[in-house]
Specification:
With 154 residues, the chain is an alpha+beta fold. It contains 4 helices and 5 strands, in the order ααββαβββα.
């Protein structure tokens, strides 16, 4: 096990979690943010994968819990593939958010909306200092998914 491998493993974990990607779960973190937005709440949530909590409480649902559990189920294999010892992971919190006020329809794509998904993952392993990974990714979805949610696999 090399400590430097944790950074790569957690970077890939964060990227998968924040993406509109069904490879690890039929549920999407972006939909959790869309749900908060539709409730008139700040579209920002934190998943604590060590303590198995989701904040704010308004983000907790059957779907968001399934999303967390799917990623927790994947974590051992993912860490093994990066030659990381999961038992030495002390902290793994991913916060995602979207500023929907900055979303826009690209030219000639009136039925679509583009926005930026942001993520910060705070992690700690092997008794070392806390680390932070930050990333952003642009996503393009049908405009009506802002109300209906992006389709998910059950």
């Amino acid at each position: 096990m090399k400590y430097k491998n944790y950074k790569s493993a957690i970077h890939n974990f964060t990227h998968s979690f924040m993406s509109i990607d069904y490879l690890k779960s039929g549920r999407l973190a972006v939909n959790v943010l869309i749900d908060l937005y539709n409730l008139g709440l700040e579209p920002k949530t934190t998943f604590d994968f060590i303590n198995k909590t989701i904040q704010p409480i308004d983000a907790e649902s059957k779907e968001s819990k399934q999303l967390m559990n799917d990623y927790l189920d994947w974590l051992p294999d993912h860490f093994d593939s990066h030659n990381c010892d999961l038992t030495k992971l002390e902290r793994l919190e991913t916060t995602t958010w979207i500023d929907f006020d900055k979303a826009f329809s690209p030219p000639r794509m009136n039925n679509a909306i583009e926005f930026t998904v942001n993520a910060i993952t705070k992690w700690k392993a092997d008794g070392r200092n806390d680390e932070i990974i930050e990333m952003s990714q642009n996503e393009l979805i049908k405009k009506n998914y802002l109300k209906l949610r992006i389709p998910e696999w059950k």
